[in-house]
Amino acid sequence: MDYEAFKAEVAANIKDYLPDQYADSTVSLQVVQKNNEALDAITITSPDSNVSPTIYLNSFFSDYQAGKSMEDILSQIADIRVEHEVSKDFDVSQITDFEQVKGKIAARVVGVEGNEELLSQRPHQIMDDLAVTYCVMLGEDANGSMSVPITYQLMESWNITQPELQALAKENLPELTPSTFKSMNEVMAEMMLPQIMDDMGVDRETAEQMLADMMPPEDKMFVLSNEQKLNGAAALLDDKMMEQIAERVGGDFYILPSSIHETLIVPAEAGMELRDLEAMVKEVNETQVAPQDRLSDHVYQYDAETHEVFRADKAEEHQQAKEVAKAEKEQPKTEKAQKAKSEKEVTIADRMKAGKEKMNAQVPKPKDPAKAKETVIS
Amino acid sequence: MGNNITPEIELNTDSEDRMKAYAERLKEMLTQKEDKK
Questions:
Q1: What is the DSSP secondary-structure string of A312-350?
Q2: Which one, of A154, A220, A292, A121, lies nearest residue B28 by Cα?
Q3: What is the pLDDT of residue A377?
Q4: Between B8, B22, B23, which is nearest A149 by CB?
Q5: What SS3 class is residue A79?
Q6: Distance (Å, rounded) from C-alpha A285 to C-alpha A129?
Q7: Out of A84-88, A232-236, A268-272, B30-34, which region has the weakest mean confidence (pLDDT)?
Q8: Binning pLDDT at 50, 70 and 90, where does residue B2 land?
Q9: Phi, psi (degrees; rounded to nearest 5) at A90
Q10: Is the CB of residue A291 less than 8 Å from the CB of residue B18?
Q11: What is the Cα–Cα distance from A208 to A217, expressed in whole angstroms?
Q12: Cβ neighbours of A66 (radius 10 Å)
């Protein structure tokens, strides 16, 4: 069965696997623009409901090709639909009333390239070849999460702006999607230890040793994500976490965009060549990362001094901008000092010439202090 | 805007393959770097 036939089969038979309450539901297939690609989705909508979850079919076809039976796939899709049933009295105002949703707005980070169409529909903030988009989080369970992407239409209905969305998403981040920062060894142990123990028939200690032999040193690679392990690249917006990472790894660090769900941190002091890191990201993206999870082929860097994230291959431009910003910050101080000096000279001359009262009338207001530093993401 | 809201369900993804690939490659790169010294 090819993919087209598979989709038709699912649409035609899914109701047989659903409880009776779905007998009058409408089943429809549609194409939804997702990260880097358009995915095929199925919606099963009850006649008296205005909300229906979207379930993507592409990965189920991969399961089918890998040998999973149609019966099992249909049962799984039906289970997901039932588990994510939105109450029939779901209040649509929960989405359209800004006051009710503002605490549920979360950020997502995707690559710009390949997402031009998606970004044309959604408010976003560009971070070089990455873009921050936003969604309303509706809930989550052990299998995944349910959310509504924020489109220009939705944002405009709330009468707010993209910078406001960005600020809210950052404010909500620690509560909605708490960031996690673990060594690669710890993450791999969570994923692989039980499997190694089973497959090799060894005890935990031996399995840990086997895993340690496969891993780089504990302090050379870390994983930055969130507790949900979904859309965890948005943890890059967690300013506090980024500062804590810099403290932990001893300063600047590289950010490898391993997927939209997590990024990898390599301390700059590890002394890796940027071109080697870039080649590694490109190769792993091509061979190990599904298009819908792919983030970018470019390595980023965090400047622990300025707290800025920038593309590592643009380090020279970043350094120049940093020097200009530093000079601008210093300049007003110098001007102020010169002004104060000349005022003092004028003051003495005036005092000698016209007396104290006249001098006081001539003292100008001090210059404004240097402008507050803007956050720059280049 | 209309009243048709379509929430997306995103299922957890398996990151093991890419994590393993990165860990192995970084280890290899560090070993090569050590050997050059």
A1: GGGHHHHHHHHHHHHHHHHHHHHHHHHHHHHHHHHHHHH
A2: A220
A3: 35
A4: B8
A5: helix
A6: 15
A7: A84-88
A8: very low
A9: -50, 125
A10: no
A11: 14
A12: 7
**Between residues 1 and 37 of chain B, which touch chain A (CB distance below 8 Å)?**
1, 3-13, 15-27, 29-30, 33
Q: Which residues of chain A have a CB within 8 Å of the CB of B19?
A: 184, 187-188, 191, 223, 258
**Contact residues, chain A, for B3 at CB < 8 Å:** 50, 92
**Residue B32, SS3?**
helix
Per residue in A263-289, pLDDT tens? Answer: 999 999 998 999 999 999 999 999 999
Q: Note the ipTM here.
A: 0.87
Nearest Cβ partner of B12 from A84, A143, A214? A143
Length of chain A: 378
The residue among A261, A265, A323, A308 whose CA lies nearest residue A289 is A261
Given a contact cutoff of 8 angstroms between Cβ atoms, the answer to whether A97 and A220 are in contact is: no
| CA gap A190, A193 in Å, rounded | 6
Cα distance between residue A106 and residue A145, in whole Å: 12
* Cα distance between residue A163 and residue A374, in whole Å: 14
**Relative orientation angle of helices A3-13 and A58-65, to the nearest 10 degrees:** 110
Sequence-distant (≥ 6) Cβ neighbours of residue A263 within 8 angstroms? A223, A224, A225, A232, A233, A235, A236, A255, A256, A257, A295, A300
Residue A133: count of CB within 10 angstroms of its CB: 26
Picking from A373, A377, A375, A378, the residue whose alpha carbon sits closest to that of residue A328 is A373
What angle, rounded to 10 degrees, do the helices at A204-214 and B16-36 form?
A: 60
Cβ(A170)–Cβ(A239) below 8 Å: yes
Buried b (16+ CB within 10 A) or exposed e, A193-205: eeebbeeeeeeee
Q: How many CB atoms lie within 10 A of CB A327?
A: 10
**Cβ A234 vs Cβ A109: under 8 Å:** yes
For residue B6, give the amino acid letter. T
Prediction pTM value: 0.78
Report the pLDDT value the prediction gives residue A355, as an integer from 0 to 100: 45
Backbone angles phi, psi at A332, to 5 degrees: -60, -35
Given the structure tokens 């071109």, which residue do they identify? A275
